[in-house]
Amino acid sequence: MKKLLAAISFIFLIASCKKDMTTTTDNSGGVANTDVNTWIYQTMNYYYLWSSNMPKITSTNLNDRPMNYFYTILNDYGNTDRFSWIDSSATNLTNQLNGINTVLGIKYSVFYTDNAQVNLAFVIAYVLKGSPAEKAGLKRGDIILKVDDQNITVNNYGSILQNQTLKLGMGTYAAGVFSTNGISNTITKVELQTNPILKDTIVKWGGRKVGYLAYIQFLTSYDDSLRAVFGRFKTTGIDELVIDLRYNGGGYVTSSDLLTNLIVKDLAGKVDKIMNKKVYNDTYTAELNKTYGSSAFNTNFKFEANNISTLNRVFILTSNGTASASELVINNLKPFMDVILVGEHTYGKNVGSFTLTDSKNRWSYGLQPITFKIANSNNESNYGTKDGFLPNITIVDNVLPFKQLGDPYETVFNKALYQISPVAFVPFGATGIVNENKANLHTTKAISDNPKMDRIDMWMKPNF
Questions:
Q1: Domain 197-278+291-350+377-435 -> CATH class
Q2: In angstroms, how far is the first alpha carbon of the chain from the final one?
Q3: Contact 244, 210 (CB under 8 A)
C-alpha cells in the first residue's frame, strides 16, 4: 500500500506539472476563474472515475465560479454521481474527513410533534464523547423542542442550529404527546476531534456472550482503539457479534478493511488472499498497470492478532445513513460468513475517492471526486443504488424514549438479540419490545448539528 500511495503521489505531481498556467488576479483579489477551472478540468480528466463522460473542455464555461464549475463537469450529477464534492478550503475538507468539525456534538432524529406535521422535535440519537453537549449533560434520548426560544418547524429545522451558541429548550414524550419541561441548556460549539467508538460492551443473552460495538466513522487515528475493543471481545470469548453502523457514513478505506480483518471468520486462512478490488478510469488504470501490474488494484486480507476468527455470522445494525465505507465492510464479509442486516436499507455507495489539491499551492480548493469503484472478492458490487443493501430484518428506530446504545432493550439492538435467543424474550412478546410508544418520524435519517459531519465518504489518502 505504501508503494501504491507513493506512486499515486508521483503520478499526480507529474500530471499537475504538465501545464504551468500563468496566475492572474480578478477584481476581487482572487485567482482568475479560467485558470482555476482549467486546473480543475485537467485534474478531473486524469482521475475522475467517469472522465470519459465529462463534457469537452471547450464546451464548458471556464469563467464560471469554481465552486459551480466543478459540478457542471460531473457525470449525471445527482443520479450516477451523487457523491463528488468540492470545498473552497482543502484544509477544511481534510479536517472533515478526519473527523474534525466545529460542533455541539449531537446527532438527532427528527419527529413530528403535531398532527398538522408543522412542528418538530429533535430526539438525540447520540452525543459525541468530550463534546460541549456531553459536558452539558445531554444524552441519547433527550428531546429538544425549541432552539433560541423558537419552535422547530419543517421550514427552519435545517438551519436552526447554525449559530455558534445555542439555547436548547428541552422536553419529554409520553402517551404520544411531546411536552416542554421548562429545562434549557445554553451550549457553545467547539472544534472537536470525533471519537468514533460510541459504545462497546458485552451482553449476556440467552446463555451467550454478545459483543456490541457502536462505531460512527472510519478514522485511522482510532484504529488501535478499534483493535483494543476486539481484543476485549476475543479475551472474553464472545459467541455472537453485533456491529452498530446506523450512524456511520463512512471514512477511510483502510479502516474499513481493518474492521473486516477483525471480524472475518478464519482470518489465518485468508491472509494474502483478496478482500476487495478497485476499478479506476482508463487513463489511471493504464498508468497503474504499467507501474505495478494487476496487484495494484487488489486489497488482501492481513493478519490481525485480535481477529475473532470463530464466528460464523455477524449482525450489523443499519439505517439510511449506513453508507460507503460501512457498506464496504458488509460487502467485504458477505463471501465469507453470514452477514445479517437489522434495521433499514443502507445508503447505497459502492464508489470512493481521494482528495485532490494543487501541488503548486496556487489555489486552496480541495476536490473530492469519485475516483474508484470497489467490489468484493467475488466481484460483487451491486449495492450502488438508492436502496443500497436491503435489511434481512426490517425495523424502524421510532420507539420513544430511546434507550441507550448497548442496552439490550434498545429497539434495534433488541431486534438483533431476538434472532440470537428468542427464549429470552418470552415475557415481552413476539417482537421483543414491551409497551411500544412509537412516534411519527419526519425523516428516517439522523442528522448532525454540523451538516458537514453527515458527509457520505469512502476515501484513500495519497501523499501528494
A1: alpha beta
A2: 15
A3: no
Please tell me what DSSP assigns to residue 152: P
**158 touches 138 (CB < 8 A):** no
* Residue appearing with cell numbers 443500497: 388
**What burial letters (b/e) apply to 370-390, b meaning 16+ CB within 10 Å?**
bbbbbbbbeeebebbeeebbe
Q: How far apart are CA 101 and CA 195, in angstroms?
A: 12
What residues are paired with 50 via a beta bridge?
A: none
**SS3 at position 143:** strand
Cβ neighbours around 188 below 10 Å, total: 11
DSSP code per residue over 100-152: EEEE--EEEEEEE-STTS-BEEEEEEEE-TTSHHHHTT--TT-EEEEETTEEP
Calculate the CA dihedral of residues 302, 307, 312, 316 and round it to 10 degrees. Answer: -90
| CA 357 to mean position of chain CA atoms | 22
> Using one digit for the tens of pLDDT, what is the confidence trace for 419-455?
998 854 443 444 444 455 889 999 889 999 998 898 8
Cα separation, 167 vs 183, whole angstroms: 10
Specify the CATH number of the domain 102-193. Answer: 2.30.42.10
Q: What is the pLDDT of residues 281-316, one digit of tens each?
A: 999 999 999 988 888 899 999 999 999 999 999 999
Length of the chain in residues, anyone? 464
> Which helix (DSSP H) or strand (DSSP E) does residue 228 occupy?
helix 223-236
Q: Report the side by side order of strands in the sheet with 370-376.
A: 250-252, 457-460, 351-354, 370-376, 274-279, 298-300
Q: What is the Cα–Cα distance from 335 to 327, expressed in whole angstroms? A: 14
Q: Are strands 106-112 and 120-127 parallel, antiparallel or unpaired?
A: antiparallel
C-alpha distance from residue 170 to each of 179, 254, 392, 433 (Å): 9, 40, 36, 26
pTM for this one? 0.90
Strands 457-460, 351-354: pairing kind: parallel
- Residue 42 host element (H or E): helix 33-47
Give dist(CA 411, CA 404) in Å, integer: 10
Among the listed residues 260, 415, 396, the one whose alpha carbon sits nearest the alpha carbon of residue 319: 396
Q: Which three cell numbers stand for residue 158?
A: 435545517
Q: Where are the domains of the chain?
A: 102-193, 197-278+291-350+377-435
The SS3 call for residue 230 is: helix
Could you report the average pLDDT of every consecutive run of 10 residues in the chain (464 residues)?
Answer: 40 35 36 90 96 97 96 95 94 91 97 96 98 98 98 97 97 95 97 97 95 97 98 98 97 97 97 96 92 89 96 97 97 98 97 93 95 97 94 95 96 94 52 66 92 87 45
- Alpha carbon dihedral 134, 325, 255, 286, in 10-degree steps, equals -150
Residue 225 · residue 252 · CB < 8 Å:
no
